Amino acid sequence: MVVKVYGPAYGSTKRVLVCLVEKGIDFETVPVDLIKGEHKQPDYLALQPFGAVPVIQDGDCTLYESRAIIRYYAEKYKDQGTDLLGKTIEERGLVEQWVEVEAHNYHPPIYTLTLQILFASKMGFTADENLIKESEGKLGKVMDLYEERLSKSKYLAGDFFSPADLSNLPFTQRLVSEMGKEYMIRQRKHVSAWWDDISTRPSWLKVKDLL
Amino acid sequence: MALKLYGAPVSTCTTRVTISLHEKDLDFELIPVDLFVGEHKHPHFLSKNPFGLIPVLEDGDDITLFESRAITAYVAEKFKETGTDLIRHKDIKEAALVKVWIEIESQQYQPAISPIVYQYFVAPIQGKSPDQAIVDANVEKLRKVLDVYEAKLSQSKYLAGDFYSLADLHHLPYTYYFMKTPCASLVNERPHVKAWWDDISSRPAFKKVAEGMIFGDK
């Protein structure tokens, strides 16, 4: 039985898809069109009552929130595929720390940039230039802290690729490609090397263009 | 003492951790960080958390961790056989649902409730009145989130199932302060949310910590 993953076109879903590929777990995708409001339809809300993507169905198990889904599969399939959680409780603690950093410090400004720059006209509002500038400033400060960390550590949680790095992939890809802000990555030597490393992983290349 | 927690007894993020430590009956030392004098931006503290935020946990020489939910996850995992079972590690499906609702608190609940708490508790310290536009916008967001919680809690006693977990615990600090604001009716009007709140806020581990949550008290 394959895992069904809803909303493959979107950044949060792509986090999950990368994890599934890293763990060698088969999946099928079900497109959800957020512009058409498919995530607010009763059928979808029956699966994910907050009306967000992704949601996954794995047998009789329905789960949502990308970082929860990742933690679930990383733990359940600890001995299969890439080891995403580290070898010790301390390494696991650092994974959790840097996942939380992404969730609370990196994601909010980069998500705002994504909505304002890429989705404003599709969603029918005018992009707020001040908000864009402010968000870029906030994101830059977080990237400076990533730079400091990555000058001492190959990946965010330590010397191993983990959900802490993975969670940054989808929205950062949009930042450097569609949003035209690759300079933010390239201005920071260690962030730049880290980006080149994680964005060329086969798992990311496999899912980045799925719709 | 092996476990040292740097933070403040009135702080929502610090208390998220102290509640979990009490649920596990763990000894720890709470080392105060004085935000009002900017201690969290001093080099000494930044060497522990370069983001300049409380809390920070030091577990002996083994690890220094920041981000409250990473600390509670570490504590719940390391001490999973001690005290209250917060992560349901013996049942993979229950554990999965705990993970989901931990993220819902982090990504849906917190972003709506924290600006409201900020406006009523922090803005006044800066000599400002609560910004009604910010309050109203976030009340709308929180209303929708609590409607989902009401439906969920009509089907199970706690968020992840019929068992208390870290997912419920994470809601305690912000909700405690929120219930002192004029917006508390959002909880009080929803019978299952209210019953859940009354239950989780009467747990001894929380009551011990709430004694120190005197932010805004006169």
Explain this structure:
The complex is a heterodimer of chains A (211) and B (218). In chain A, 55% of the residues lie in helices and 8% in strands. Chain A is built from 10 helices and 4 strands. Chain A has helices at 11-22, 42-45, 66-76, 89-123, 129-150, 163-166, 169-176, 182-186, 189-198, 202-207; strands spanning 3-6, 27-30, 55-58, 61-64. The longest helix of chain A is centred in the middle third of the chain and has 35 residues, at 89-123. The mean pLDDT of chain A is 97. With 218 residues, chain B is of the alpha+beta class. Chain B has helices at 12-23, 43-46, 68-78, 92-122, 132-153, 166-169, 172-178, 185-188, 191-200, 204-210, and strands at 3-7, 29-32, 56-59, 63-66. In chain B, strand 1, helix 1 and strand 2 (29-32) form a beta-alpha-beta unit. The two termini of chain B are 34 Å apart. The A-B interface holds A 49-50, 52, 61, 63-68, 71-72, 75-76, 89-90, 92-94, 96-97, 99-101, 103-105, 145, 148-149 and B 50-51, 62-63, 65-67, 69-71, 73-74, 77-78, 92-93, 95-97, 99-100, 102-104, 106-108, 145, 148, 151-152.
Secondary structure layout plus pairing:
The complex is a heterodimer of chains A (211) and B (218).
Chain A (H helix, E strand, L loop, with lengths): L2 E4 L4 H12 L4 E4 L11 H4 L9 E4 L2 E4 L1 H11 L12 H35 L5 H22 L12 H4 L2 H8 L5 H5 L2 H10 L3 H6 L4
Parallel strand pairs in A: 1-2
Antiparallel strand pairs in A: 1-3, 3-4
Chain B lengths: L2 E5 L4 H12 L5 E4 L10 H4 L9 E4 L3 E4 L1 H11 L13 H31 L9 H22 L12 H4 L2 H7 L6 H4 L2 H10 L3 H7 L8
Helix pairs in contact in B: 1-3, 1-10, 4-5, 4-7, 5-9
Strand content of chain B: 5-15%
Shape, principal axes of CA atoms of chain A: globular
Largest sheet of chain A: 4 strands, mixed
Structural class of chain B: alpha+beta
SSE series of chain B: EHEHEEHHHHHHHH
Beta-strand percentage of chain A? 5-15%
Number of helical elements of chain B:
10
InterPro entries (chain A): Glutathione-S-Trfase_C-like, Glutathione-S-Trfase_C_sf, Glutathione_S-Trfase, Glutathione_S-Trfase_N, GST_C, GST_Phi_C, Thioredoxin-like_sf
GO cellular component, one term (chain A): cytosol
Main location (chain A): cytoplasm
Enzyme class (chain A): transferase
